[in-house]
Amino acid sequence: MGRRPVRGSTSPRQRRSCIKGTNYPDPRRRIGNANRYDRGVGLDDDTVISVRGLTKSYGSFQALRGVDFELRRGHVLALLGPNGAGKTTTVEILEGFRRRDGGEVSVLGADPSHRDRALRAKVGIVLQECAVDPYLTVTEAITQRSVLYPHPRPAGEVIDLVGLDAKRDARVKTLSGGQQRRLDLGLALIGDPELIFLDEPTTGFDPTARRESWDLVKGLCAEGRTVVLTTHYMDEAQALADQVAVIAAGKVVATGTPDTIGGRDRGKTTVRFVIPPGVSLGDLPLPSGICPTVRCGAVEFSLPDATALLHDLTGWSVVSGKPLAGLTVTRPSLEDVYLSLTGAEVDHP
């Protein structure tokens, strides 16, 4: 898992890393050495992370004010929140690199503040930069790291998994930025971790590379691994997360699935379409009580359940032969909910 760079409490977070894999892991392959695929020390179920009443202060500034959440095995948790909300501090406490002031934290059944060697062997952290000799080859770097773990994955398997097969004999210093991010992930995976921390994994990636990295994360979870993801990309959280926790001003203000968090599944439906030529608003089969907005010939309105109205509108369109151009039906996006939950009330040290 490598040694973590030393950082001051007020310095910016350095662990920015990206992953870019091309090979989807075999879902049938469980975590290596199947006898080690257990429920974690002291756990009676599949809870990998449990956080209760977590607090942390830096001087007079309260970074965390009673954070609570849980994460189950094989799931992806997306931690969302504005800069300064407490995400970094929370993750560093879970990783064992920062001590908490109060509360209870369990990671794979152990207290991460004890820095237990057995726990560290089960955790993979993707660092911002390759902490390896730049003159080593990719194979040498992965192999060198593997000796630190009791049950490492085969080096060749890891290299293939992160899409560096063509660069296995290339020296680290010759790798491109994207290739170094792949190596970062390979170094985190060589120990065959059960829990992986990914911090902003696709920042700066093009769309193709982002989708490849998403496939890799999904494959890791299909193997039974658990992922903690911090990201500012709402589409990434929507695509990957089984659970979302939104942190604002040091508190978890909402948890849930991407589709239900913050009552997203119960939000009003917005219907929008272009009024057909020669048709006035009064000609449309709209129920009373709706106050539509008309802009540049397009009508838009929101209501709790649009099923009956859509039936009437589309039926009218078919019978009259007047198409409803640009017809869209949307609910609040994850970004909409995130913005409403976080607002601008974020304290900064």
Task: Count every helix, treating DSSP H or I runs of 4 or more residues as helices.
Answer: 9
Let me know the number of strands. 13
Share of helix, binned? 25-40%
Determine the structural class based on helices, strands and strand pairing.
alpha/beta
Task: Give the overall form.
Answer: elongated
Q: What's the arrangement of strands in the largest beta sheet?
A: 5-6-7-3-8-9
CATH fold call of the largest domain: Rossmann fold
Strand/helix succession: EEEHEHEHHHEHEHEEEEEHEH
Radius of gyration, whole Å: 24 Å
Number of domains: 2
CATH homologous superfamily annotation of the largest domain: P-loop containing nucleotide triphosphate hydrolases
Quote the average pLDDT: 83
Major sheet details: 6 strands, mixed
CATH architecture of the largest domain: 3-Layer(aba) Sandwich
Strand content: 15-25%
* Unreliable residue runs: 1-44, 344-349
Head-to-tail CA distance between termini: 30 Å
Class of the largest domain in CATH? Alpha Beta
Kindly list the characteristics that best describe this protein.
2 domains, four-stranded antiparallel sheet, Rossmann fold, six-stranded mixed sheet, elongated, single chain, Alpha-Beta Plaits, disordered C terminus, about 350 residues, about 25% helix
